[in-house]
């Protein structure tokens, strides 16, 4: 089994690639149908008989959505364009669109006997272009309402061109350009995700995709293995696995080649000249991950002074401040990992540790079983390439946000505030007073800021009830006119934190019902939670705020805050009166900028 | 019960999960309400997957019951030998 597949299997990502059989898929679906669970409904649009792609999509989605009962509904058989056009009127959690060449023109499939004569090629291209324009126009409309996952044609083109197969014909190239243009247009839409053809090529070789017999007999053109692979990739985009948040790397024979203590600062290398290029490639990937918001720390058994000098080398391929914290000492690496986790304030299961020593990996794993420990294969460039691809899958995100760019810096800030936590009240107050803090409160819900949903779905500690939303349920919630949304952003003299808190709910008479309240742990100790409540009382002029509180395994910080406000342990639907809140009010020292509903 | 029969029964049981084994071994397109053309496609795909074989397109129309399919599978296996 390759490294990628081992990794995938451990993370239930692509667990069944090329392995899930139809019988297993049907069994997964059958088991779930017996269970009472909230439905997750997916509309499947394809021009061929949906058959096994429907089955595999259902089964793969069921694996990534174990709490839901997945229902995949195809439209009318053979009516790709009709089904696509009806998407807007349908009520689903997500759409999966599987396009094939014959959807652009039936002559591009085996079930039509339309002409392949050279004189027909221009007409086929013309049809394909017209269909492409129709497709772009439709998905632009539909994707405003519901997330769309698209797989563009994956089958080999039939031998329609007059050229021999080893020569790319102009017809083939123009047809593929037409699909590329469609794909590019779709990729620019916020709610659209597209299956990566390169990944599909790796997992499902072109020659093993088309099942001519099945297409003729039943109208289903895919071999089972290809149907399963397409379905699995689509399921991962419909329900994305949570990306890892932090990477802890070793230095010697990992971030660079050689032992720093033996070779000295100038002796370690990461270039072609010293046959250590893949360490440079590894650095380049780490830099990219860091800029994409992944936290990167160092755990190294080394002389800290030497490490500081080596990391300051001007030819290092990542800026020194991309690494934080740097734990360099002679103690156990598990201790370094413990400290880094504390600084980052994230769970061990969100972190990957990379080291070239199996013994160090085992030592860390023994103390932190939830940390993903991966060997750096220092003597095998091919395996390093595979490692880098695996890291992309573990840390990959569909889009980058402003917050991704400032996450590392805000963690540094948090350590400054944590130091403040232990101080006496007057000193702490003084610290906040001089932080030059500014909060921007945004009540706009049109268009919905995707960062709000991201925060709701990944915040555990300061989370009112742990309820997660799909993009569709989130959109539907705010389609109700009485629903409000508050997004708070924060910055102070230490730098910006970005958008870090979300509150949502509804006003009924003189009471504000808060159903959603999350705040990033990076924003603790700044009285932002106090300020958010103050803003709600003042803006909506209510007598009380009622919280749809639910205790979870991880939301103790929010529970403690409510207990402090209420003078008792919070219960479901607990209420905080205006009088009680302002009686406890203490100055927050924030400048507040407000953005009203737009 | 022989191996081929057991494996075929597994395929039938997956394609028609609500039926007991006793009904499945007697199953035919005439006595199983849900055995329509789509169920046939699923059943044949399961059989091909389970037995690692490709069913002959010309024979598909004749494969209308459990006993007939079992006979077909035994026959083609013998031919391969």
Short description:
The complex is a heterodimer of chains A (598) and B (81). Helices cover 43% and strands 18% of the residues of chain A. By secondary structure, chain A is of the alpha/beta class.
Low confidence ranges of chain B: none
Number of strands of chain B: 0
Helix content of chain B: 55-70%
What is the CATH-assigned architecture of the largest domain in chain A?
A: 3-Layer(aba) Sandwich
The CATH architecture of chain B would be Orthogonal Bundle
What number is the mean pLDDT of chain A? 89
* Through-space gap between termini of chain A: 53 Å
Major β-sheet profile of chain B: none
Query: Radius of gyration of chain B from the CA trace?
Result: 12 Å
Largest interface: A-B, 17 and 16 residues
Quaternary structure: heterodimer
Per the principal axes of the C-alpha atoms, what is the gross shape of chain A? Answer: globular
Structural class of chain B: mainly alpha
Q: Could you say which overall geometry of chain B the principal axes of the C-alpha atoms support?
A: globular
